[in-house]
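Render this sequence as a predicted structure.
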Amino acid sequence: MTWGAASVPALLLAWLLGCWVVLQHPRTDEPSRSDALFVLGPPDRTRLAEAQRLMDAGIAPVLVIAVPGAGDLGDDSGPVYYTRAQQVCAAESAYEVICFRPDPSTTQGEALQLRELSRQRGWDHVSALTYRQHVTRSRLILERCYAGELDVLAFDYPELPRGLLREFAYQSGGFAKAWVTPGCDQQLPWRPKSRD
């Protein structure tokens, strides 16, 4: 076996091990009282149920939900998420609910909105909610835009929507993009997203 042929399985194994450590076992924070619970999108049933549970437990006086528009996700799921989130956005509740469409419709767009809302409202402690495999990358991107105290809370899907290997590949691509766009609002020059 040549060096090249032996290195491919070794590199694949190293990547899988790295993903297992970074994505399956990220540093998460315990829920604590904060100025707002910021729900990273899309607002699927599992995510909204966990947000509701945390809000009912009194984690924050404000619930912020990222709601993509139709077509923002590159598939047909946008209208479904939008309709589901609007039920939460329009419902009467014991706390304030803010729903927004991220621009761009990415974690970076959500981080930009967090920066804006925290400046407007004087927030200095925010809890962000996302699924386990997205925690590390979310923390990286959110901390670029938000200087206050940030707790990143994780939930687990009963079954990952994309499957674990596809999720590892997706998050690896997201990390690569984050590393070549190190600023809060920096984008890939050859593929900018909307920021009208």
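Summary. The chain is about 45% helix and 15% strand. The two ends are 54 Å apart (CA to CA).
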